[in-house]
């Protein structure tokens, strides 16, 4: 199917909210990982979200070019072409964007989409994330308010983060401590600043112990009930039982019951990156180790072209990542729910 229109993306989010499931949002950084994500969603019978981070966008532009906007637009163009051949709906999203990268990433992409929409076209991306977790809450929400207006004009959904995700991603690192738990007061401040949909649709990543990367059991203390308390805190202001559309960041390595509880409390999107990176790389390593003398010209030999052809190990890597996407869909209860 074509990449989801803004209306189709809204219908996807509504379906997840009413059906009590969430979409995996798979980070990619190449055509291979994009194809693997598409394959996984198709095999699961699930619509989904495919996204690029600032680092992923730089890499997609060429590792010596490092232009986030170029990489993002190239990704969007490629995805728009290849997604047509898959029987599920796919939305495109840009992941974590801190304050110092807004002018080189989200704002120019929004400007490009705004111009395209004015000329009768569709936005390049269905949603963009502003990561204000490193700035004071008042500044975070002030910037979010400005970006929400811009997104609304371009028919794009905004994603924000209120709280701090621990661990490291794309050079942004935070300690694992009590700052990882968003308070009900922060949730109320968010609703007061941005509304509950009347000023434009937005997704909210509240933090409940989330950590980027994978840690040994016991190191990460998830408290999904933080999300429930946030929903309860704003109910009087909004009159809604589930005012927030939540995003689960730092979900790699989470237990199925923790994921399920988060979905029950309003999560409709969950970012998956570390687990799919490993699922992609592990089969490639296995192939290299088993075909060592084929992929290398050992002791002056010629090797085996069929072994060092990137397609040989690339297909295995893509299949491994696709299988992990299917697992994510099953854990988030989105498997078999495509809205067609």
TrEMBL record:
PANTHER family: FRUCTOSE-BISPHOSPHATE ALDOLASE, FRUCTOSE-BISPHOSPHATE ALDOLASE CLASS 2. SUPFAM superfamilies: Aldolase (SSF51569). Its EC number is 4.1.2.13. It comes from Nocardioides jiangxiensis. Pathway: Carbohydrate degradation; glycolysis; D-glyceraldehyde 3-phosphate and glycerone phosphate from D-glucose: step 4/4. This is Fructose-bisphosphate aldolase. The keyword Metal-binding applies. Catalyzes the aldol condensation of dihydroxyacetone phosphate (DHAP or glycerone-phosphate) with glyceraldehyde 3-phosphate (G3P) to form fructose 1,6-bisphosphate (FBP) in gluconeogenesis and the reverse reaction in glycolysis.
């Amino acid at each position: 199917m074509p990449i989801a229109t803004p209306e189709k993306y809204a219908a996807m989010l509504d379906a997840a909210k009413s059906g009590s499931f969430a979409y995996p949002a798979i980070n990619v950084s190449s055509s291979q990982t994009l194809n693997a994500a598409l394959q996984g969603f198709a095999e699961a019978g699930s619509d989904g979200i495919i996204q690029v981070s600032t680092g992923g966008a730089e890499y997609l532009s060429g590792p010596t070019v490092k232009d986030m906007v170029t990489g993002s637009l190239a990704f969007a163009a490629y995805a728009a072409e290849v997604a047509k051949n898959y029987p599920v709906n796919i939305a495109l999203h840009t992941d974590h964007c801190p304050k110092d990268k807004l002018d080189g990433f989200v704002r120019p992409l929004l400007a490009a989409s705004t111009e395209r929409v004015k000329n009768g076209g569709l936005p390049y991306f269905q949603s963009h994330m502003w990561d204000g977790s490193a700035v004071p809450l008042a500044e975070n929400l002030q910037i979010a308010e400005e970006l929400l207006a811009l997104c609304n004009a371009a028919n794009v959904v905004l994603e924000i983060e209120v709280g701090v995700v621990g661990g490291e991603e794309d050079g942004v690192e935070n300690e694992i401590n009590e700052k990882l738990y968003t308070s009900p007061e922060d949730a109320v401040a968010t609703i007061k600043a941005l509304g509950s949909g009347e000023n434009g649709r937005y997704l909210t990543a509240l933090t409940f112990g989330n950590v980027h990367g994978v840690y040994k059991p016991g190191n990460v203390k998830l408290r999904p009930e933080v999300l429930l308390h946030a929903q309860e805190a704003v109910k009087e202001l909004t009159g809604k039982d589930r005012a927030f559309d939540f995003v689960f960041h730092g979900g790699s390595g989470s237990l199925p019951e923790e994921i399920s509880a988060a979905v029950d409390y309003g999560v409709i999107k969950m970012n998956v990156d570390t687990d799919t990176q490993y699922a992609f790389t592990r089969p490639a390593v296995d192939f290299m180790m088993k075909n060592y003398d084929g992929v290398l010209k050992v002791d002056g030999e010629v090797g085996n072209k069929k072994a060092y052809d990137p397609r040989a190990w690339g297909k295995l890597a893509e299949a491994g990542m696709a299988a992990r996407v299917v697992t994510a869909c099953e854990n988030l209860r989105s498997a078999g729910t495509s809205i067609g």
